Amino acid sequence: MNPEHLQLLVTREMPYGKYKGRLIADLPGHYLGWLAREGFPRGEIGELLALMYELDHNALRHLLDPLRKR
């Protein structure tokens, strides 16, 4: 896991789709699960979505709280 990617989760917005404009860290778990089943997009956005899915799936969203306060 890249520490810079964790910071990107709380600053990067979803660029398209139903949740366009929402921070990746704020995407709902059911949507992340759907993406995991359908396949994450290629590139950095896909890596960030996969990371957020892992955090959500393992109940680790709280790890992002200190990064939000910066």
Could you walk me through the main structural features you see in this protein, from its secondary elements to its overall organization?
- There is one protein chain.
- With 70 residues, this protein is an all-alpha fold.
- The protein has one domain.
- It contains four helices and no strands.
- It has helices at residues 3-9, 29-38, 44-57, 65-68.
- It comes from Noviherbaspirillum cavernae.
- Pfam families: QSregVF_b.
How many domains? The number is 1
Order of helices and strands: HHHH
Rounded mean pLDDT score: 94
> Percent helix among the residues?
40-55%
User: What is the oligomeric state here?
Assistant: single chain
The secondary-structure class comes to mainly alpha
| Stretches with pLDDT under 50, minimum 5 residues | none
Strand-residue fraction?
Answer: under 5%
Kindly report how far apart the N and C termini lie: 20 Å
Main sheet makeup: none
Number of helices: 4
Secondary structure tally: strands: 0
Give the overall shape. globular
Backbone CA Rg:
11 Å
Strand-helix topology:
Layout: H1 3-9, H2 29-38, H3 44-57, H4 65-68
Helix pairs in contact: 1-3, 2-3
Task: Give a brief description.
Helix content is 50%, strand content 0%. It has helices at 3-9, 29-38, 44-57, 65-68.
Keywords, please?
4 helices; mainly alpha; 50% helix; 70 residues
